[in-house]
Specification:
The complex is a heterodimer of chains A (127) and B (273).
Chain A lengths: L6 E6 L3 H11 L4 E6 L2 H11 L3 E4 L8 H9 L9 E5 L4 H9 L4 E4 L5 H12 L2
Parallel strand pairs in A: 1-2, 1-3, 3-4, 4-5
Helix pairs in contact in A: 2-3
Chain B lengths: L1 H22 L5 H20 L1 H6 L4 E6 L4 E6 L4 H26 L1 H4 L18 H8 L5 E2 L7 E7 L5 E6 L5 E7 L3 E7 L5 E6 L9 E11 L4 E2 L6 E5 L3 H31 L1
Parallel strand pairs in B: 3-10
Antiparallel strand pairs in B: 1-2, 4-5, 5-8, 6-7, 6-9, 9-10, 9-11
Helix pairs in contact in B: 1-2, 2-4, 4-7
The chains are: A alpha/beta (127), B alpha+beta (273).
């Protein structure tokens, strides 16, 4: 696939190992993977890259995922970027809060199989 | 396969997260127990996730920037503390793995694994000076001036890390070779019809230290209890090869790596206070 057509996925995850695992899961000809280890960097990179999809952790340093979501959804250029949450937070309130902020899907890490997450991403990106 | 492995990584990181949550706000012995468990889990995670560090470098990725209409490098973030901790754990794990493999597969270099102790020795395979006379009676053997002396023609390193001695002598006679270290190893060999003999020394039986060692040969006739004069003493040098160097240093490395990681852990902990 030509580089111009590669879709950009931004992974916002502060756990290095998990970041690498997700990178390995998603990398390939289809996607360009960018990553951020904290919420502030994730927001800057979102503004700069305008990614096709964001995979977001909620518990991150500097700026948490909820603050990131508020900032992105209030930005007219970025608000339509599909965001999937992959978080340790599994409480109903957290899930509802994230859904109210407009996330496309919510995965709790302890209940997630990565292949399901991968399929979901492919479906959203239409690839 | 890849997905199963990545799911395992995810599961362990989740379990660690849950365990960390359990410790928060608690005190007492159960916390200590949980911290020990966390350390074990982190080590397991480090080992399981090790291929991630081989397959993926912390690198820049190229992305197409809409605002500029060009490709640019975008940094791939990493967590320095985690990397250092993992690197430390992995170094220790690798050193101990090397050590274990050496013990299991190269006992001739490392020495056998000591699973038992010997309390009573009947007869040693390699003989001390006292046992020489019992075994071959050379102390009582009469020296015959006319008996031809054998000679050492070549010393070579064997494939198994020992030493092979080659020489010539009277066909049909027996050659005795004395190899000195703190103790003296005694070998005997029959000279073939062409007048050649060969003796193989294994480091597994009797480990020669690094440095110069003397080797002496003479002919011996057990039936007549006579022997020749010893051939002039010769020397050969035992040198450490890379494997020997590794064997010698693996323990030191293992111990120092533990000390360095401990200091690094204290330093990183202080940074977080």
């Amino acid at each position: 696939m030509p580089k111009e057509n590669k879709k950009i996925i931004l992974i916002a995850e502060d756990d290095e190992i998990l970041l690498r695992a997700l990178y390995l899961l998603l990398r390939g000809d289809m996607y360009t993977i960018a990553s951020a280890g904290d919420g502030e960097t994730a927001l800057k990179m979102t503004e700069r890259l305008n990614p096709n999809l964001v995979l977001l952790d909620l518990l991150m340093p500097k700026m948490d995922g909820f603050a990131y979501l508020k900032a992105v959804k209030s930005n007219s250029v970025l608000k339509d970027i599909p965001i999937i949450v992959l978080s340790n937070l599994g409480d109903k309130e957290d899930i509802e809060k994230a859904q109210n902020l407009g996330v496309k899907d919510y995965f709790v890490k302890s209940d997630t199989r990565l292949e399901i997450l991968s399929e979901k991403i492919k479906k959203i990106l239409g690839s | 396969m890849k997905n199963s492995w990545l799911n395992l990584v995810l599961s362990i990181t989740n379990y660690i997260y849950e365990r960390k949550k359990m410790i928060l706000g608690r005190s007492g012995l159960s916390v200590v127990k949980n911290i020990v468990l966390l350390i074990i889990l982190e080590i397991i995670l480090a080992i399981v996730s090790l291929p991630l560090y081989f397959t993926l470098k912390t690198e820049s990725v190229t992305a197409f920037l809409l605002e500029k209409g060009t490709y640019e490098k975008v940094s791939f973030d990493y967590n320095l503390r985690r990397v250092l901790t993992l690197a430390g754990v992995e170094i220790i794990a690798l050193i101990w793995l090397v050590k274990l493999l050496l013990i299991l597969f190269l006992p001739s270099f490392y020495g056998p694994m000591n699973l038992y102790t010997v309390s009573n020795l009947d007869k040693a395979a390699v003989l001390s000076g006292d046992l020489i006379s019992e075994e071959i009676g050379i102390e009582t053997a009469r020296i015959i001036d006319a008996m031809p002396q054998p000679k050492i023609e070549k010393v070579a390193r064997s494939r198994t890390g020992g030493y092979d001695f080659f020489g010539a002598g009277q066909p049909g006679s027996t050659v005795v070779l004395l190899l000195s270290d703190e103790q003296t190893a005694v070998y005997t060999a029959d000279v073939d019809e062409k007048g050649y003999w060969e003796i193989n020394h294994s480091q597994a039986n009797f480990r020669l230290k690094e440095g110069n060692h003397s080797v002496v040969v003479f002919s011996y006739d057990k039936k007549l209890e006579v022997r020749s004069h010893a051939a002039p003493e010769q020397f050969f040098k035992v040198t450490a090869d890379r494997l020997n160097f590794l064997v010698k240093n693996v323990d030191v490395l293992a111990n120092w790596s533990a000390v360095i990681i401990l200091l690094l852990g204290i330093f990183l902990t202080l940074l977080t206070i």
